[in-house]
Structure formats: structure tokens, C-alpha cells
Amino acid sequence: SIIVERGMSARDLECTSGEQTFLAWHLSNPRGYIGWPKEAVLFHLPKERELLEDTARRLAFEAYLEVSKLPYTKQSQQNADYMSPSGTTPFLYLKYGGQPLIIWNFDHLRDFLCTLKLGRHGELDARQTADMEAYVSVIRTKIIPAETYETWAHSQNVRKHTMVLQGMGLAWPLRYFVPWTNWLTFCWRKWELWRSSRQSLLLECEQGCRALSLRLGNKQRFFDGGNTSCLDMLTYAHLQAILSTPLPGGELAHVVSQFKNLVQFTETYKASLEQSS
Fold it and tell me: pTM for the complete prediction?
């Protein structure tokens, strides 16, 4: 299968033998795009097994596809994380003949659809685009690290939430070994984050929410004209995931709930997606 990486062009996707892949051929096509496949499947874990990060990624994918009005089906799989090339969920399976595309990252999805002129993500000028990327960076550097810490490093959440969900549906002894293996993997890969101060991460999350709150103001969207941007989608996805995930240590949800306009934004955005679907 073809794995779409950020910034790939038709030349990047050429085979080493000199032959072009299916995607590269279409990218070099004068039309400048390929049609949306008849079979597009978003694979994800059962919602009762999703961790906070899984929920946020799924909501972001769903929001982008719904706003772009691209038809797809959702398929819940107990082993979706093992099916995914990255080990994370969700991932999007696009069937193009005998060479499927697998996209598991929101940025990959956005760049892929933008390159092929399929996505709908608002008409922003150069200045607005720069502002959008700056605030998206706030989500990535201020909010997502707090999500990861609460999921994998806070002892109460790890013991009563993460380990329970990670072992759900697995037979003994896998329901013991798999959660602990995943936790040790997190500690190894995210050592600096694991050693971080929880209070400092919550404070940074609060600072990030304050920046988003000030940017949003009393508007329904972050940019004038009511256009939905990637910032709207990611803000909705991550804040809705935080507010709806029942973590035993609920301080992260408390931080977000202090910003009433952001809470109202997530509720309004969720209602608009449900209405359009």
C-alpha cells in the first residue's frame, strides 16, 4: 500500500524502478486531482476502548471528512491499533484499485486532500493561513502534551483508566502484558514528558486555551465569514475529547471548562456536524 507522507509530490512518489505509482500518475494528471474512491473506510477502536488521544484524533478525522462532504464509512475494530501502520488510531483506508492508500495522520489527510483539490477547509488569505498555523501550533505544543501526560503519566489515570481500557477484551495474560508494554513504550519514547511536572503542563494547557479563547471571542468560528478552518476542526476535536473523556483525575477537563466560549464552541460545532451528517 502507499503511505502518504507530509509534503510528498508526484516526483517523491515515483517508484525506484522509474515507474510511477497509481497516486503519482494521478498527481501528474492535467486535472490536478483524483476522484474520491467508492470505498473509504475510517477504522477506529470501539468508543468504549478509546483513550483521550484516540478520541481526539477520530473526531478530527470525522470533522474534516464531514466538512469536506466526502462519503466514508466508519468501522470499529478491537484490533484497529494493530491494523494501523503507525500503531495509532484512527486510520483512513482508501481503496484505489489494487493499491490502497492508508492515511493515519490529520496533517497527512489535510495535505493529501489539498494537493488533490478535494478538501474543503475555508477560504483563507495568506495572513489568515499564517495565523491558523500559529494557533494550530498552540494546540500541538500546549494542549496535546497535557492530554498525553494525563493519559500515560498521571498515576491515578493510568491505573484506573488507561490500563483498564488497554486490556479490555483481551484474554489473560495479554490483558496484563499489553497495557504494561504500551506504558513502558510510552516511558521510553516520551521520557522527558513522563518526567515533566503535571502542574506545569496543566498551566501550559490553560495558557493555550486562553490564547484560543481570546482569538475566538464571541464568534462561532475562528475566522471571519463563517469559514471552517483546520483550526476549528482541531480545537473542536481536542477540547471535545477532553470534556467527554471520564478521566478519574478530572483536572484537565476543569481547565478547559473555565473558558465558556470554547465550551460553547465545541457544543455548537458538534451540533452542526450532527446536523450535516
Answer: 0.87
Helices (H), the chain: 22-27, 52-67, 80-83, 106-115, 126-138, 144-152, 155-157, 163-167, 174-189, 191-194, 198-216, 230-244, 251-257, 260-276
> Distances from the Cα of 231 to the Cαs of 20, 44, 117, 120, 216, in angstroms?
34, 22, 19, 13, 10
Q: Are strands 2-3 and 101-103 parallel, antiparallel or unpaired?
A: parallel
State mean pLDDT over 34-53.
92
The DSSP call for residue 94 is: E
Dig out the grid coordinates for 122 from the structure: 475555508
**Residues making up the chain, counted from first to last:** 277
Q: Decide if pLDDT at 29 tops 50.
A: no
Question: If 0-12 CB within 10 Å is exposed, 13-18 middle and 19+ buried, where does residue 68 land?
Answer: middle
Grid cell, residue 136, equals 494550530
Q: Are 79 and 25 in contact (CB under 8 A)?
A: no
* Residue 127 to residue 245: CA distance in whole angstroms: 35
Residue 85, SS3 per DSSP: coil
pLDDT band at residue 246, thresholds of 50, 70 and 90? very high
Residue recorded with cell 486510520 = 91
